[in-house]
């Protein structure tokens, strides 16, 4: 069989090529992911700005974490940290209530941190003042 030089491809050659491609992909993606919000430490703070005489009670949770009930004096905050998931579906919601100056209970619930909305708005440090509408 006339002068053709044949090269024998073995399974170890294939394994090395696949490993090399995986390492190249990993080297390209790691710097790219570090500029993304995924896995970043997010800090959320809720501040009572209703009035000096009004205590705010707040109860925040996510699908995985119940942060408990907290009563905040005027200008006091409740804060926590977490890591955003890779799917950008991290969601924390809070129920809040207080008694207004007329003795009426004011209450509501709010999605306090929604990854798809808040990453653009406040990145890694999100502060939410709570005040009564006039």
Concise structural overview:
The chain is an alpha+beta fold and 134 residues long.
Topology:
Blueprint: H1 11-34, E1 41-48, E2 56-62, E3 66-72, E4 77-83, E5 91-99, E6 105-114, H2 115-122, E7 125-130
Parallel strand pairs: 1-7
Antiparallel strand pairs: 1-4, 2-3, 2-5, 5-6
- CATH second-level architecture of the domain at 41-130: Sandwich
Mean pLDDT: 84
Distance between the termini: 94 Å
What are the segments in which pLDDT stays under 50 over at least 5 consecutive residues? 28-35
Q: What share of residues are in beta strands?
A: 35-45%
CATH fold annotation of the domain at 41-130: Immunoglobulin-like
Class by SSE composition? alpha+beta
The spatial strand order of the largest sheet comes to 3-2-5-6
The biggest beta sheet, please? 4 strands, antiparallel
CATH class (first level) name of the domain at 41-130? Mainly Beta
| Rg | 26 Å
Tell me the helix content. 10-25%
Instruction: Specify the overall morphology.
Output: rod-shaped
Provide the succession of SSEs.
HEEEEEEHE
Number of H/I helices: 2
Write a structural description:
24% of the residues lie in helices and 40% in strands. It is α+β, with helices and mostly antiparallel strands. The chain has a domain at 41-130: Immunoglobulin-like (Sandwich). A four-stranded antiparallel sheet has the order 3-2-5-6. A hairpin with a 5-residue loop joins strand 5 and strand 6. The radius of gyration is 26 Å and the shape is rod-shaped. This is S-protein homolog. One of its GO terms (biological process) is rejection of self pollen.
């Amino acid at each position: 069989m006339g002068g053709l030089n044949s090269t024998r491809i073995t399974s170890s050659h294939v394994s090395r090529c696949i490993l090399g491609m995986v390492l190249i992909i990993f080297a390209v993606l790691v710097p790219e992911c570090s500029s993304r919000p995924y896995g970043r430490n997010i800090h959320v703070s809720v501040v009572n700005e209703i009035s000096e005489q009004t205590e705010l009670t707040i109860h925040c949770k996510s699908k995985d974490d119940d942060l408990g009930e907290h009563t905040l004096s005027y200008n006091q905050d409740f804060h926590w940290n977490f890591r955003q998931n890779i799917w950008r579906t991290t969601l924390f919601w809070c129920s809040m209530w207080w008694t207004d100056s007329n003795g009426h209970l004011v209450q509501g619930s709010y999605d306090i941190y929604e990854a798809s909305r808040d990453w653009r708005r406040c990145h890694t440090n999100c502060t939410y003042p709570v005040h009564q509408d006039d």
